[in-house]
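For anyone still unconvinced, we reproduce a single protein record, the chain in one-letter code, the fold tokenised, and leave readers to judge:
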Amino acid sequence: MQAIELETDISPEGQICLPSPLRGVYGRHARLILLFDDKPPSRLAIDRLAELRGFYEDDQEFDAAMEEIDEAWQQWQ
């Protein structure tokens, strides 16, 4: 078994992008171990949820959920 260590981002769609120098492994089966920093969720994710607000006009449940998420994020800071 060969091990390669790298850092990469996971797209919002769940895709993991491998850098082009690793093209030789594209299409092969791999076992992944994901290591995450112990950091709070990014503000970017919360901002993306806020963008959805336009689709849920006058929705009190959505507003309440957004407030809970924002409060939880504030506690992590």
Remarks:
- The two ends are 40 Å apart (CA to CA).
- The chain has two helices and no strands.
